[in-house]
Amino acid sequence: MPDKHQSGFVNIFGQPNAGKSTLLNALLGENLVITSPKVQTTRHRIMGILTEAAYQIVFSDTPGIIDPQYKLHQKMMQHVKSALEDADIAILVHDITTPIEELQGIVNGMKLKVPCLLLLNKADLVKDKKEIEPIIKKYNDAFPGWDVMAVSAQKKTNIDKIVPAILRSLPEAPPYYPDDSMSDRPVRFFVSELIREQIYHLYHEEIPYHAAVIVQSFEEKEKLDVIKAEIIVTRETQKGILLGKGGSMIKQLGINARKNIEEFLQRKVHLELFIKVRPKWRDNDNYLREYGYN
Ligand SMILES: Nc1nc2c(ncn2[C@@H]2O[C@H](COP(=O)(O)OP(=O)(O)OP(=O)(O)O)[C@@H](O)[C@H]2O)c(=O)[nH]1
Ligand SMILES: [Mg+2]
Questions:
Q1: What does the pLDDT look like over 16-62, one tens digit per residue?
Q2: Looking at the domain 6-167, which fold is it?
Q3: Where in the chain is the domain with CATH 3.40.50.300?
Q4: Dist. CA 95–CA 126, nearest whole Å
Q5: Rounded-to-integer distance, Cα 264 and Cα 121, Å
Q6: Which atom of ligand 1 is nearest to the CA of 43?
Q7: How distant is the alpha carbon of residue 265 from its chain centre?
Q8: pTM (whole model) above 0.85
Q9: Residue 173 near ligand 1, beta carbon < 6 Å
């Protein structure tokens, strides 16, 4: 054992689509949480644990901060609140191409009391690299006392500078989790997320926002895992869109999701998808609980 061991909770916050989940995956070197080009992809607080001999960093990905429009949104913002309460360090992810005022808006509502690392993400989108220094300076001036860095979670630029910055203020403590744990969530959760991710990638307009996914059964057979999952939507018409012409869309969804699930589980998978219509599930406490949005 090294003489000094650091551990703590480093929780990731920011606006929808800023790249929080992509960042967590880059930090872990693994595709643990789902990402998509659409806003409001992440709906839960999801831990991703990074363990080394001298430290354990318990990261939490969180939903993008929004004004709640329905109960599902309220639940999502409760996940953000819980992460605000136990953070030892906050990572704020801000899309470098969006105005500083938007960040100020969410920061004012957060009342952060812990050290903060501000990551200006998507720095790859700044064509003229000479512009980056002045942008960092602008944020340094607006948020005195914070560490500010320009990074690209997607291109993995400056990602290796994040852990050293965290270790400068991570508490000295023994590890919170066994050294082989990756997350606080069970395999079934990640399987349902991988299906939901493909809904975000394949469908447009309201479909992703009206859909929930729940794994009904998961049987480990000798040669493969047999997984049955349900996709819940709010209207019959959405069911039709999900199916597509002659079932072509849901077939594609199954193929894409299965590929990613197999990669995640490192096992062959047989995936069966069912669609259920549950009007207004996003505003119904019982359904929200049933679908894992406690
Ligand atoms: N160009 C560029 N795109 C990025 C970068 N990081 C993330 N993205 C893209 O931005 C989009 C949103 O990324 P996510 O990681 O899902 O964003 P998020 O902040 O977790 O979003 P929510 O969960 O909806 O709050 C995806 O299409 C990513 O591929 C980056 O460094 N550069
Ligand atoms: Mg996310």
A1: 999 999 999 999 999 999 999 999 999 999 999 999 999 999 999 99
A2: Rossmann fold (3.40.50)
A3: 6-167
A4: 11
A5: 26
A6: 23
A7: 19
A8: yes
A9: no
